[in-house]
Amino acid sequence: MERFLWRCPNCGAALVPLPQPHPTVLQCENRHSFDIAKQGYVNLLLPQKRGGTPPGDNADMVRARTAFLEAGYYKAFSDGVNRLCLDTLQSSGIRAPVIADAGCGEGYYTHRLCAYLREHRLDAACVGFDLSKDAVSHASRCAKADGMQHCLSFAVASLFEMPLADGACDGVMNLFAPVADAEFARILKPNGFLLMAVPAENHLFGLKCAVYDTPYKNEVRRDVLSHFRLMDVTRITDTVTLNDNAHIRALFQMTPYYWKTSQKDQQKLFALSSLTTEIAFDLLLYQKVDARGSTPNPAKGTF
Ligand SMILES: C[S@@+](CC[C@H](N)C(=O)[O-])C[C@H]1O[C@@H](n2cnc3c(N)ncnc32)[C@H](O)[C@@H]1O
Ligand SMILES: [Zn+2]
Description:
11 strands; binds S-adenosylmethionine; binds zinc ion; eight-stranded mixed beta sheet
């Protein structure tokens, strides 16, 4: 917790852990205080921003996605994210990076990234934010179980209002979650990078063939962001075979098709005992631009 420059969601002042006998409370100078849950996360989403129903993914969605990710089907993608982050940090000479994962879900990528950077002798600290309390709670439990709570933290918060000071981070990761261009730029240092993932043309084509009579390839997405310049694109592809119907369902539920597919077409998928599909992602590496639109110290060549 200490490595992160927490900011109070009420008043914007710095939030710091209280000394003994209350080390499990974060408090600002205006005495707004937030309990650190026993799992290790802190809920910094103000009640008035929570709305009626619990926001973010619910416990069932979290469980399904956890089972799928922990089975390793997206490991190649996670490895690609890790390599790209390490290369970017090493080429900028950053030895003790702070990385935020905006919309971290249950922290699969955040956790693996933090462990990987530390295995490569960087004194990395990673923090994940998500609206889903169930997801954040799971992520924190895993961090604690692996003894990583000193370098890996999670908070319930909106990625549009992350409870971090301006310029607190070297990098922001944003994987399959909403994009908050200005907020990402705010929490980044001047040279900071943003790593975003988007599906490539063939992503999940095998799954689509199993569901739809006329499957389409994805349109390639290249978001133009006003506070960032696109520096590099890395394509990651793999072919995975799912031999467990629960994993097939979980994968389907993780996709936007889940919400758009008829019951009849969904049944085709739910009847399968095995599915082989290509997975294909583009990792978009952006660098923060200053107010004049220039990158102070470009990490890689633009194109
Ligand atoms: C498709 S999941 C991706 C999770 C994770 N990055 C992964 O790839 O496994 C999208 C996540 O964004 C979260 N989310 C949606 N809107 C959000 C917001 N405004 N602030 C923070 N998290 C949000 C959801 O709760 C969900 O966990
Ligand atoms: Zn405050």
